[in-house]
Amino acid sequence: MILIDAVTKRYPDGTTAVDRLTLEIPDGSITVLVGPSGCGKTTTLRMINRMIDLTEGRITLDGADIRDQPVNALRRSMGYVIQNAGLFPHRTIADNIATVPRLLGWDRRQAKTRALELMERVGLDPALAKRYPYQLSGGQQQRVGVARALAADPPVMLMDEPFSAVDPVVRKGLQDELLRIQAELGKTIVFVTHDIDEAIKLGDMVAVLREGGKLAQYAPPSELLTAPSDPFVEDFLGTDRGVRRLSFFTAAGVELTSLPIVAVDSTAEQLTERTLPALDLGKTPYLLVTDTEGRPLGWADAKLRAAGDTALTPYGHSFTAGRDSLRAALDSAVLSPTGWAVAVDESGRAVGVAAQETIAAAIRDAHAERPVLLPSQVAEPDGDGGPAGTAAEDAAVPVRPDGAGA
């Protein structure tokens, strides 16, 4: 465990970057530091590996004060990932990844083997090992940065806005990759970001800092969205925090119907005699047409389809039944031109559809089972801004925003 105990960083000109910050960062989890510019996120991160020296307080790693350790040994015991990867441009990808193992005395062959293993782990083709950073895309370079941080198998990883310089699609892929790697390796990760959506998706715990390095709230993401501690946190979370909170409710309770699902090779006779009589065309005037393997192709007007019309309307996007969240299901319904969400299984085959009204009922049921807590119902944080009490913890639902179990 990393303990940040009443830590202050004050510069010679009198500027206080971090002000009596206290955090307990649990082992094997991702703790995210988030907040506006000037709130001390990066300063806090760099004090953990002594790239910046603290002014007051102390930081301990498994009970040992970090100032009692040789600074080079401390830094080599922690992986460090920054924006734009920070790779050595004159070294190959394999040599970049092998940097810390070589500094620790590993022989060249052992370090190269480790580099190739890690390239596969972070989703990089080993054929890229002999290339140089400029020959890779931004997303590939960030993966190299993560691999380099993992090279010596450090128990702690520090990540300073590592995905902020890439486009949203690549960023989502890198976030998913980090969660996959973390599920396999269970590192203690301290992650800095200014993006609240990224914090909620990645964090097991989220520390919201206000300007001047003061802790505003420290809590699991679901609790943060349920009961922000004050107007500053509420404003920082944004006006759509209710929708974000749906990320922590599973869509398993959404009632699905398979009646409107038909295969692309269904005949007009089959539709007229079997499918249409089973539907209430006033409520369900559309059919979801799938390919012969059951994967959705698009929506069709039920009566026109039975009359031989083959036109299809795109279905938007689907959600995975039993895995995704209520937020994903609601998003699927809202973006569907028919107002119906399409549910698929892990192989992408359609298993049912759900109307917006059905998803709304599931949302009401989820809230009834785990009601939103008012601030007065949540135990007050301790004097150091520690986590709130057990009432809010009991309200949390063990579903990550990526759909996986927490």
From TrEMBL:
The keyword Transcription does not apply. Keywords: ATP-binding, Nucleotide-binding, Transport. It comes from the Bacteria. Coiled coil: none annotated. Gene3D superfamilies: P-loop containing nucleotide triphosphate hydrolases. InterPro entries: AAA+_ATPase, ABC_transporter-like_ATP-bd, ABC_transporter-like_CS, P-loop_NTPase. Residues 389-399 have a biased composition (Low complexity). Residues 372-406 are annotated as: Disordered. GO terms for molecular function: ATP binding. Residues 2-236 form the ABC transporter domain. It holds the Pfam family ABC_tran. Belongs to the ABC transporter superfamily. This is ABC transporter ATP-binding protein. It comes from Streptacidiphilus cavernicola.
